[in-house]
Amino acid sequence: MLNQFSRTELLFGKQAMERLENSRVAVFGIGGVGGYAVEALARSGVGTLDLIDDDKVCLTNINRQIFALRSTIAKYKVDTAAERIKDINPKAVVNTYKCFYMPDTADQFDFTQYDYIIDAIDTVTGKLEIIERANAAGTPVISAMGAGNKLDPTAFKVADIYDTKVCPLARVMRRELKKRGIKKLKVVYSEEQPIRPIEDMAISCRTNCICPPGTARKCTERRDIPGSAAFVPSVMGLIIAGEVIKDLAADHK
User: Fold this and answer.
1) End-to-end C-alpha distance for the chain, whole angstroms
2) What number is the average pLDDT over the span 183-191?
3) 105-111: average pLDDT
4) pLDDT digits (tens, 9 = 90+) for 51-71
5) What are φ and ψ of residue 158, in 5° steps?
6) Shortest CA distance to 170 belongs to which of 154, 157, 152?
7) CA-CA distances (angstroms) from residue 34 to 7, 200, 238, 239?
8) In angstroms, what CA-CA distances link 16 with 9, 26, 82, 148?
9) Helix, strand, coil percentages, rounded to 5, for the chain
10) Residue range 70-85, pLDDT digits in tens
11) Which of 27, 70, 143, 202 qualifies as a FRET site for 175, CA 20 to 30 Å off?
12) Quick one: CA dihedral 20, 114, 79, 124, positive or negative?
Protein backbone atom coordinates (compact mmCIF):
# COMPACT_ATOMS: atom_id res chain seq x y z
CA MET A 1 0.00 0.00 0.00
CA LEU A 2 1.31 3.44 -0.90
CA ASN A 3 2.38 5.72 1.92
CA GLN A 4 4.68 8.69 2.48
CA PHE A 5 7.73 6.41 2.47
CA SER A 6 6.95 4.34 -0.64
CA ARG A 7 9.62 6.00 -2.78
CA THR A 8 12.22 5.29 -0.11
CA GLU A 9 11.09 1.68 0.11
CA LEU A 10 11.75 1.30 -3.62
CA LEU A 11 15.42 1.84 -2.80
CA PHE A 12 15.82 0.12 0.57
CA GLY A 13 13.16 -2.59 0.55
CA LYS A 14 10.45 -3.50 3.06
CA GLN A 15 12.70 -5.05 5.73
CA ALA A 16 14.97 -2.02 5.83
CA MET A 17 11.95 0.28 6.22
CA GLU A 18 10.80 -1.84 9.15
CA ARG A 19 14.24 -1.48 10.74
CA LEU A 20 14.03 2.29 10.33
CA GLU A 21 10.53 2.39 11.83
CA ASN A 22 11.74 0.41 14.83
CA SER A 23 14.83 2.58 15.35
CA ARG A 24 15.35 5.27 17.96
CA VAL A 25 17.78 8.08 17.22
CA ALA A 26 18.90 10.88 19.55
CA VAL A 27 19.87 14.20 17.97
CA PHE A 28 21.83 16.55 20.20
CA GLY A 29 21.56 20.07 18.78
CA ILE A 30 18.63 21.13 16.58
CA GLY A 31 20.27 24.03 14.76
CA GLY A 32 21.56 24.45 11.22
CA VAL A 33 23.13 20.98 11.06
CA GLY A 34 20.95 19.01 13.46
CA GLY A 35 17.71 20.45 12.11
CA TYR A 36 18.32 19.17 8.58
CA ALA A 37 19.45 15.82 9.97
CA VAL A 38 16.16 15.54 11.88
CA GLU A 39 14.18 16.46 8.78
CA ALA A 40 15.82 13.72 6.72
CA LEU A 41 15.42 11.13 9.48
CA ALA A 42 11.71 11.92 9.78
CA ARG A 43 11.20 11.80 6.01
CA SER A 44 13.03 8.46 5.89
CA GLY A 45 10.68 6.80 8.35
CA VAL A 46 12.77 6.65 11.54
CA GLY A 47 10.16 5.75 14.13
CA THR A 48 11.42 7.42 17.31
CA LEU A 49 13.40 10.64 17.61
CA ASP A 50 14.80 12.21 20.75
CA LEU A 51 15.52 15.93 20.27
CA ILE A 52 17.84 17.70 22.70
CA ASP A 53 18.30 21.49 22.59
CA ASP A 54 17.48 24.30 25.03
CA ASP A 55 17.52 27.09 22.45
CA LYS A 56 14.66 29.16 21.06
CA VAL A 57 14.28 30.23 17.43
CA CYS A 58 15.81 33.64 16.75
CA LEU A 59 15.38 35.93 13.74
CA THR A 60 19.05 35.36 12.85
CA ASN A 61 18.43 31.59 12.56
CA ILE A 62 16.14 32.00 9.55
CA ASN A 63 19.00 32.15 7.04
CA ARG A 64 20.05 28.53 7.70
CA GLN A 65 17.80 26.56 10.08
CA ILE A 66 14.90 24.54 8.63
CA PHE A 67 12.66 24.97 11.67
CA ALA A 68 13.28 28.73 11.85
CA LEU A 69 10.46 30.80 10.35
CA ARG A 70 8.90 34.15 11.17
CA SER A 71 6.04 32.19 12.70
CA THR A 72 8.33 30.16 14.98
CA ILE A 73 10.48 32.97 16.42
CA ALA A 74 10.72 32.70 20.22
CA LYS A 75 9.44 29.11 20.21
CA TYR A 76 11.67 26.31 21.44
CA LYS A 77 13.44 24.60 18.55
CA VAL A 78 12.60 21.13 19.83
CA ASP A 79 8.89 22.03 19.95
CA THR A 80 8.80 23.40 16.41
CA ALA A 81 10.75 20.36 15.20
CA ALA A 82 8.34 17.98 16.95
CA GLU A 83 5.32 19.63 15.32
CA ARG A 84 6.87 19.31 11.87
CA ILE A 85 7.89 15.68 12.41
CA LYS A 86 4.35 14.74 13.42
CA ASP A 87 3.04 16.48 10.30
CA ILE A 88 5.41 14.38 8.20
CA ASN A 89 4.75 11.13 10.03
CA PRO A 90 1.87 11.08 12.56
CA LYS A 91 3.03 7.67 13.80
CA ALA A 92 6.45 8.95 14.82
CA VAL A 93 7.32 9.11 18.51
CA VAL A 94 9.09 12.36 19.37
CA ASN A 95 10.69 12.96 22.76
CA THR A 96 11.83 16.53 23.42
CA TYR A 97 14.32 17.78 25.99
CA LYS A 98 14.82 21.50 26.58
CA CYS A 99 18.32 20.85 27.78
CA PHE A 100 21.81 22.20 27.11
CA TYR A 101 23.84 19.00 27.04
CA MET A 102 26.93 19.15 29.22
CA PRO A 103 28.50 16.86 31.84
CA ASP A 104 26.18 18.26 34.53
CA THR A 105 23.04 17.34 32.53
CA ALA A 106 24.32 14.09 31.01
CA ASP A 107 22.72 11.84 33.62
CA GLN A 108 19.28 12.67 32.19
CA PHE A 109 20.02 10.36 29.25
CA ASP A 110 20.47 6.60 29.00
CA PHE A 111 22.53 6.09 25.87
CA THR A 112 21.87 2.34 25.80
CA GLN A 113 18.27 2.97 24.69
CA TYR A 114 19.32 4.54 21.39
CA ASP A 115 20.13 2.81 18.12
CA TYR A 116 22.17 5.79 16.93
CA ILE A 117 23.29 9.16 18.26
CA ILE A 118 23.93 12.36 16.31
CA ASP A 119 26.20 14.96 17.89
CA ALA A 120 25.37 18.30 16.29
CA ILE A 121 26.30 20.60 19.15
CA ASP A 122 29.12 23.11 19.02
CA THR A 123 30.77 22.95 22.45
CA VAL A 124 33.83 20.73 22.78
CA THR A 125 33.02 19.73 26.36
CA GLY A 126 29.52 18.61 25.41
CA LYS A 127 30.71 16.78 22.31
CA LEU A 128 33.31 14.85 24.26
CA GLU A 129 30.72 13.88 26.88
CA ILE A 130 28.33 12.59 24.20
CA ILE A 131 31.05 10.58 22.51
CA GLU A 132 32.40 9.11 25.75
CA ARG A 133 28.92 8.05 26.88
CA ALA A 134 28.02 6.62 23.48
CA ASN A 135 31.28 4.70 23.43
CA ALA A 136 30.65 3.30 26.93
CA ALA A 137 27.11 2.28 25.93
CA GLY A 138 28.26 0.66 22.68
CA THR A 139 25.90 2.91 20.71
CA PRO A 140 26.94 4.18 17.25
CA VAL A 141 27.57 7.92 17.14
CA ILE A 142 28.36 10.37 14.35
CA SER A 143 29.72 13.82 15.12
CA ALA A 144 29.53 17.11 13.22
CA MET A 145 32.75 19.08 13.01
CA GLY A 146 32.95 22.77 12.13
CA ALA A 147 30.45 24.20 9.61
CA GLY A 148 30.66 27.90 10.49
CA ASN A 149 32.56 30.50 8.45
CA LYS A 150 32.53 28.27 5.36
CA LEU A 151 31.04 28.62 1.88
CA ASP A 152 31.84 25.39 0.00
CA PRO A 153 29.29 22.60 0.58
CA THR A 154 31.27 20.27 -1.70
CA ALA A 155 34.23 20.18 0.71
CA PHE A 156 32.53 17.92 3.26
CA LYS A 157 33.85 14.42 3.83
CA VAL A 158 32.86 11.44 5.97
CA ALA A 159 35.86 10.00 7.79
CA ASP A 160 37.24 8.71 11.04
CA ILE A 161 38.28 11.57 13.30
CA TYR A 162 41.93 10.47 13.10
CA ASP A 163 41.91 10.81 9.31
CA THR A 164 40.69 14.42 9.28
CA LYS A 165 42.70 17.47 8.33
CA VAL A 166 42.34 21.27 8.03
CA CYS A 167 39.28 21.55 10.35
CA PRO A 168 40.28 23.35 13.59
CA LEU A 169 37.50 21.68 15.63
CA ALA A 170 38.51 18.23 14.39
CA ARG A 171 42.10 18.94 15.46
CA VAL A 172 40.98 19.72 19.01
CA MET A 173 38.68 16.69 19.09
CA ARG A 174 41.46 14.37 17.87
CA ARG A 175 43.72 15.50 20.66
CA GLU A 176 41.08 15.19 23.38
CA LEU A 177 39.74 11.84 22.21
CA LYS A 178 43.25 10.42 22.11
CA LYS A 179 43.73 11.47 25.75
CA ARG A 180 40.53 9.60 26.61
CA GLY A 181 41.56 6.43 24.81
CA ILE A 182 38.78 6.63 22.21
CA LYS A 183 40.27 5.11 19.08
CA LYS A 184 37.65 5.86 16.45
CA LEU A 185 34.75 8.20 15.70
CA LYS A 186 32.79 8.72 12.50
CA VAL A 187 32.60 12.43 11.68
CA VAL A 188 31.54 14.76 8.91
CA TYR A 189 34.06 17.54 8.42
CA SER A 190 35.14 20.08 5.83
CA GLU A 191 38.57 20.55 4.29
CA GLU A 192 37.72 24.15 3.38
CA GLN A 193 39.78 26.73 5.23
CA PRO A 194 37.36 28.79 7.36
CA ILE A 195 37.07 32.43 6.37
CA ARG A 196 37.08 35.34 8.78
CA PRO A 197 33.64 36.97 9.16
CA ILE A 198 33.25 40.64 8.29
CA GLU A 199 33.57 42.82 11.39
CA ASP A 200 30.49 45.00 11.04
CA MET A 201 29.00 45.98 14.40
CA ALA A 202 25.81 47.19 12.67
CA ILE A 203 24.88 43.56 11.93
CA SER A 204 26.64 41.90 14.84
CA CYS A 205 24.79 40.01 17.57
CA ARG A 206 27.56 41.20 19.85
CA THR A 207 26.17 44.74 19.93
CA ASN A 208 22.61 44.20 18.66
CA CYS A 209 21.39 41.07 20.47
CA ILE A 210 17.81 40.14 19.56
CA CYS A 211 17.64 36.76 21.31
CA PRO A 212 14.02 36.00 22.30
CA PRO A 213 13.00 36.69 25.91
CA GLY A 214 13.89 33.81 28.19
CA THR A 215 16.80 32.60 26.05
CA ALA A 216 19.13 30.75 28.40
CA ARG A 217 22.36 31.23 26.42
CA LYS A 218 22.51 34.50 24.53
CA CYS A 219 24.80 35.05 21.52
CA THR A 220 26.57 37.82 23.42
CA GLU A 221 27.89 35.23 25.88
CA ARG A 222 29.68 33.27 23.18
CA ARG A 223 33.37 33.71 22.52
CA ASP A 224 32.84 33.79 18.73
CA ILE A 225 29.78 34.40 16.58
CA PRO A 226 30.46 32.66 13.25
CA GLY A 227 28.98 33.55 9.90
CA SER A 228 26.93 30.92 8.09
CA ALA A 229 24.97 30.38 4.88
CA ALA A 230 21.87 28.36 3.97
CA PHE A 231 23.72 25.83 1.81
CA VAL A 232 26.56 24.72 4.12
CA PRO A 233 25.16 23.46 7.48
CA SER A 234 22.17 22.00 5.65
CA VAL A 235 24.45 19.85 3.48
CA MET A 236 26.38 18.65 6.52
CA GLY A 237 23.12 17.73 8.25
CA LEU A 238 21.87 15.78 5.25
CA ILE A 239 25.18 13.91 4.92
CA ILE A 240 24.99 12.96 8.59
CA ALA A 241 21.41 11.77 8.23
CA GLY A 242 22.36 9.75 5.16
CA GLU A 243 25.07 7.93 7.09
CA VAL A 244 22.68 7.17 9.95
CA ILE A 245 19.89 5.97 7.67
CA LYS A 246 22.19 3.72 5.63
CA ASP A 247 23.68 2.20 8.78
CA LEU A 248 20.29 1.60 10.40
CA ALA A 249 18.73 0.20 7.22
CA ALA A 250 21.59 -2.25 6.62
CA ASP A 251 21.05 -5.85 7.63
CA HIS A 252 23.93 -6.62 10.00
CA LYS A 253 22.76 -10.14 10.85
Assistant:
1) 27
2) 98
3) 96
4) 999 999 999 999 999 999 999
5) -100, 130
6) 157
7) 24, 28, 9, 11
8) 8, 19, 24, 34
9) 40, 15, 45
10) 999 999 999 999 999 9
11) 27
12) negative
